[in-house]
Amino acid sequence: CVSVDLPGGMTVLVSKEKDKDGKYSLEATVDKLELKGTSDKNNGSGTLEGEKTDKSKVKLTIADDLSQTKFEIFKEDGKTLVSKKVTLKDKSSTEEKFNEKGETSEKTIVRANGTRLEYTDIKSDGSGKAKEVLKDFTLEGTLAADGKTTLKVTEGTVVLSKNILKSGEITVALDDSDTTQATKKTGKWDSKTST
């Protein structure tokens, strides 16, 4: 077997020879669970499957160019998603957990730089709580049904809001409830220069 490293810190073992059906055998161990599969290619790409002790099904899909892995856990029926994690080569990832109806209930986006955007308590309309974990501090806020994330930091009378639209566009707003003009803080965001 040949060992191939994958995004997400996983490793897949690929057989050196094709089997009787002309396929390469794939094996991987993820969270102490053994997954097996076959592929037309010998580079480590393909689909591996396994079953947990609670009879839930696990599927690992590795992109043809090894640029991403998709790790999915299904209920016993093999169709209803419980969770899904997509990891890219740059170590960024998106992990989703699903409720009984198959709707997203939690979502965590980890960027290549290690910062995280976490969505929890997501309701059927798409709204919920939001939290951004940066290197030295955490911003908390909300996820609106239209996909807009609003994160806020309050210091005295000043509220700094970071808004992330569904498109990924980021804007920042500064609001000060101080009524004295001489001490009131102001700021304006220029999306062209991101300043």
UniProtKB/TrEMBL annotation:
Its main location: membrane. Residues 176-195 are annotated as: Disordered. It is found in: Cell outer membrane. Keywords: Cell outer membrane, Lipoprotein, Membrane, Palmitate, Signal. The keyword Signal applies. Pfam families: Lipoprotein_1. GO terms for cellular component: cell outer membrane. The keyword Membrane applies. It comes from the Bacteria. It is a lipid-anchor. InterPro entries: OM_lipoprot_Borrelia (IPR001809), OM_lipoprot_dom_sf (IPR023322). This is Outer surface protein A. It comes from Borreliella bavariensis. The lineage of its organism: Bacteria, Pseudomonadati, Spirochaetota, Spirochaetia, Spirochaetales. The gene is ospA.
